[in-house]
Amino acid sequence: MTGAARPSGWREVRAALLARLRAREWGEGARLPPEAALAAEYGVARATVNRALAALAEEGVVDRRRRAGTRVRPPAPPPARLAIPLVRAEVEATGAPYRYTLLAREELAAPEWLSARLGLPSGAPVLHVACLHAAGPAPWQAEARWIVLAAVPAAREAPFDRVSPNEWLLRAVPYSEVETAISAVAADARLAALLGVAEGAALLRTERTTWHEGRPVTHARLTHAPGYRIVTRG
Amino acid sequence: MTGAARPSGWREVRAALLARLRAREWGEGARLPPEAALAAEYGVARATVNRALAALAEEGVVDRRRRAGTRVRPPAPPPARLAIPLVRAEVEATGAPYRYTLLAREELAAPEWLSARLGLPSGAPVLHVACLHAAGPAPWQAEARWIVLAAVPAAREAPFDRVSPNEWLLRAVPYSEVETAISAVAADARLAALLGVAEGAALLRTERTTWHEGRPVTHARLTHAPGYRIVTRG
DNA sequence: CAGTGGTCTAGACCACCGG
DNA sequence: CGGTGGTCTAGACCACTGT
Questions:
Q1: Residue A42: helix, strand or coil by DSSP?
Q2: Which of A204, B77, B137, B234 has the fewest Cβ atoms nearer than 10 Å?
Q3: Beta bridge partners of residue A204, listed in sequence order
Q4: Strand D nucleotides with an atom less than 7 Å from a protein beta carbon
Q5: What percent of chain B has pLDDT over 70?
Q6: B87 exposed, middle or buried (CB, 10 Å; 0-12, 13-18, 19+)?
Q7: What digits encode the pLDDT tens for the residues A137-153?
Q8: Model-level pTM?
């Protein structure tokens, strides 16, 4: 009845445990046997069971805490992994030639909403860059970006006329924390003209804020051309 | 400052390596020293270095292959982890009472687009369910769902009048693979009425398809009320 | 073919925290 | 307090794959 022979690698142990979880052997919130017991049961080292349980915890199936043990979590959709490709790579993957256009570049004092969002002193100097990414003749994504000059003084010297701030920043500046927000917006007049759609059209927007060691680095507002989809599989 | 002292845990080794990577000690695509060498250098066991490098690979910073070694990957935005909360939990987290309304429930033959999407024999019997999730009086999310009856025969007996198919399926059916697509759509007449917005309003849509062991289980089309944002931090 | 990462083992110590 | 998971070590074998 064991069927699964004898689990030998951590993947097999994980599979065996997952099967038992699916079979409701332990109810929601119940405690699984301690690692040592499972190790003995399966005839493997405790570290192997640990690896298997760590994987299940990573996937959100169980919750582990010292002393409290390993508990079954209520079912939830599995966390998905969202790959954030470089715009250029993304466009080139479609086969179309990548085109980049710089629309504006100016140094200014951080507007109120930006200071608030980044936790920046009001009026701190930032570099604002607006540009357009296109797949051949077709607009792909409009980018509006604000770079904190205190954090990235070198940006003052970067022209951004051939390389997008997106790409430049990735190479020039280390990041340590990123927040991404996805929403839907209606095209205003400017976006409509840029992306070649009617005013009011539904567009997908990604906003990304980046920090490094607690200090804000940059904020980007990326608006995608219609039809754009973010797809993740797992 | 603490200095890097001598890295002792795998986290410290990871941090030390990351610092060296950020300092461009190894160029893009270059090979890092083998685990054994790093272990000797840091005075830790090879398994510890392995853990640290595995973490960096997980984060997309390096690429590891047997025999080929560990190589520096070109910079890219870090993969984000997208948590997919249960709608009910999400609503309740706002403090508002969760309301659920069943709008339609009917067995029908899979329409063409659905068969194509799921890789289903054309005309296969599916159960279609439409419902609305709300936060108190405010509409939160419209859900349209198709359940493959061959995969989930028990759905025929589920009324879905109190428990959403979302929640029911999570408990009743094991999944093994999920694909999520996020896009922006303009509200059609039906959605506008349901969500209480003007026709043509920009709405965020999540489509989720679920398989189990290669066989399609269900497809959901979730349309969120205006203002909804998907936020992920990491 | 040989060097690399991937994994397992057995044992150990420790941090944490629930009772 | 004592049981639990978290981690480290030293050593070993193996799978894979570039050269």
A1: helix
A2: B137
A3: A184
A4: 2-12, 15-18
A5: 97
A6: buried
A7: 999 999 999 999 999 99
A8: 0.91
C2: residue with closest CA to C1': B67
- B10/A228 Cα distance (integer angstroms): 40
Q: What is the mean pLDDT of residues B70-78?
A: 91
**Rounded distance in angstroms from the CA atom of residue B200 to the C1' atom of nucleotide D8:** 59
pLDDT per position as a tens digit, B178-220? 999 999 999 999 999 999 999 999 999 999 999 998 899 999 9
Which nt sits closest to A34, CA to C1'? D4
**CB pairs A-B closer than 8 Å:** 137
Q: What is the mean pLDDT of residues A13-24?
A: 92
Would you give the distance in Å from CA B10 to the centre of its chain?
28
As a whole number of angstroms, the distance between CA B129 and CA B147 comes to 8
Alpha-carbon distance A173 to A151, whole Å? 9
| Residue from A2, A53, B164 nearest A62 by CA | A53
First to last CA, chain A: 30
Considering CB atoms only, which of B75, B200, B229 is closest to A170? B75
CA B153 – CA B160 distance, rounded (Å): 14
SS3 B186: strand
Q: How far is CA A216 from the centre of its chain?
A: 17
Quote the CA–CA distance of A138 and A226 in Å, as a whole number: 11
